[in-house]
Amino acid sequence: MDTMTRNHIFMENIDLINRTLHRHRLLLYALHLELDDVYQELAIAALQAIDTYDDRRCDSITVHIWAKLQYAVLTIKRRNKPHGIMACEGFAPGVLSLELSEDYGYPAVAETGSDDDLIREKRLRQHLTAQGIECRLAAYYDQAGHLRIELEGAGLAPLRKPEAVDRLSKLMNFPLRPLDETRRDQLVLVQSEPLMAVAGAAAQKKDGQAVSGDTGAWFKHDDGSLYVLLCDGMGSGAPAQRESTLAVRLLEQFLRAGVRPENALRTLNSALALRNDEAAGGFTTIDLLRVDLFTGEAWVYKYGAAPTYVKKGAAVSRITGAALPAGLTSGDGAAPDTTSLHLESGDCVLLVTDGVAGGEGDQWIRDKLAAFDGGSPRELAQAVLDTSTQQVGAAADDRTVLALRLTKRA
Predict the structure, then answer these.
(1) Which terminus of the chain has fewer CB atoms gathered within 10 Å of its CB, N or C?
(2) Percentages helix, strand, coil for the chain, rounded to the nearest 5?
(3) Would you say 284 and 247 are in contact if contact means Cβ atoms under 8 Å apart?
(4) Are 202 and 401 within 8 A, CB to CB?
């Protein structure tokens, strides 16, 4: 099988890796494994499965890859399974549920959790019993040290109500919020972040084009990280849209699977470079903002992207980079530009594509952001876009503005 065919099959089945990580997430958390390390190991297993596929033994290559991924997880479990008390030394208190500990092979040792943790779990079990709810319970700290509660069983609907979540928050002495779940028999509660974000967007296509080559997205990860993505496909129209849409889709899949942003970006850059070498695609700029909503720590990653603007109080700063767009180069020298900063409630971040400034000066963007009174981010984004038309003139390139404002959670 040639490299191009193998990579094409891999990209078509990449979601199997994400599904495997989600299916075994409790096990991986219990073993204190880094999800991006597991992701890379599963990616290698998937590539090996493609290389060894024999259609005489299995009718579906997707089924073959899925089976190999499950076997890879078993191998990881056997390699990392702790044995006895000494094997647990050095581990932070992670698994609170005795039921979960025993299911995954941990010794039933009280020292693996604090007294407060055990009291919380006891209270939770008593509360559920009083409500007449019988379910499987797993309460544990995730890799970032945040409380996570997973319930499986019938009759969980009453616990989804806001007042019920408030009672559980007081009971556990942690602010909790439910995750969106599609299964009726499952409820996941995670520790709420002290910060929240309000976002808004505005966009304009290049004159004469039916579609924009810019693609943006934002989402919040279960670990409390907020991600904002903005990609500008090189050129305009449908070809540029394909490249930027592909970049956003793959990057979002990597990040949702728990892959670190640096590794996700490097992997995406290599994939786009491969497409470019095989004349199957082009390249795109990438602007990625990650905000830890627990601490306010933030990072801006750039591959050839336009400046990012940050307002803190009355001051506006400008973040730039020198890296080339993703897909133009690969190897060790293809790391994204990375800038770290700290954000607080009331701070605002503005991401734009290069069509907004149009190659002219951008002082007017900074002035616009400095005058922002903390109102609607959507109105701010639209105001910047409208002023771009006045400053630059006709839309000679696609223009997209993403505005983000942080605020304290009520």
Answers:
(1) C
(2) 40, 25, 35
(3) yes
(4) yes
231 near 241, Cβ under 8 Å? no
- Give yes or no for a contact between 381 and 368, defined as CB atoms under 8 angstroms apart: no
- The percentage of residues in the chain with a pLDDT greater than 90, rounded to a whole number, is 41
Q: Which two tokens stand for residue 156?
A: 């969980």
Summarised one tens digit per residue, pLDDT across range 237-253 is: 888 999 999 999 999 99
Q: In which residue are the tokens 């956003």 written?
A: 248
Hey, what are 321's tokens? 């980079």
Question: What is the pLDDT averaged over residues 180-207?
Answer: 89
Residues 6+ apart with CB under 8 A from 1: 50, 51
- Rounded CA separation 280/206 (Å): 24
Residue with tokens 């009331």: 346
253 close to 185: Cβ distance less than 8 angstroms:
no
Strands in 176-178's sheet, in edge-to-edge order, are 136-141, 147-152, 186-191, 176-178
User: Whole-angstrom Cα distance, residue 96 to residue 123?
Assistant: 13
Scanning the structure block, which residue is given the tokens 């400034």? Answer: 357
Rg, Å, the chain Cα set: 24
* Angle subtended at Cα 409 by Cα 199 and Cα 216, rounded to the nearest 5 degrees: 20
Closest CA to 15 of 65, 55, 64: 65
391 neighbors 368 (Cβ within 8 angstroms) = no
In 3D, which of 219, 294, 297, 291 has the Cα closest to residue 257? Answer: 219
Specify the DSSP element, H or E, that contains 366: helix 363-370
Rounded to an integer, what distance in angstroms lies between the CA atom of residue 29 and that of residue 47?
A: 25
Secondary structure (DSSP) of 80-126: H---TTGGGTTPPS-B--HHHHHHTT----GGGS-HHHHHHHHHHHH
**Residue 144: which pLDDT band, with cuts at 50, 70 and 90?**
confident
